[in-house]
Design a protein that fits this description.
By secondary structure, the protein is of the alpha+beta class. The protein contains two helices and four strands; from the N terminus they run E-H-E-E-H-E. Strands 2-3-1-4 form a four-stranded antiparallel sheet, covered by helices on one side. The longest helix is centred in the last third of the chain and has 12 residues.
Length: about 90
Amino acid sequence: METRVAVIGIIIEDPAAVEKLNAVLHDYGPYIIGRMGIPYRERKINIISIAIDAPQDVISALAGKIGKLKDVSAKTAYSHVVSSISE
């Protein structure tokens, strides 16, 4: 199985969506390398970046679930780093 390294940039426009986002991220915890969150109080939004190392379909599924959350926007950037791991 091959994994890729990616970064998912997330903007949350409604604080009520944070709990739902955290639940989704918890489900993908084993793949998450790190997370950085920045509350932008002046604009009343939160900005989060997630670094992930996972198979392509897992990254796509996570990004899709995040994108379906109300008042949440997400974009994914992929690295060219692909690793093979034995199952």
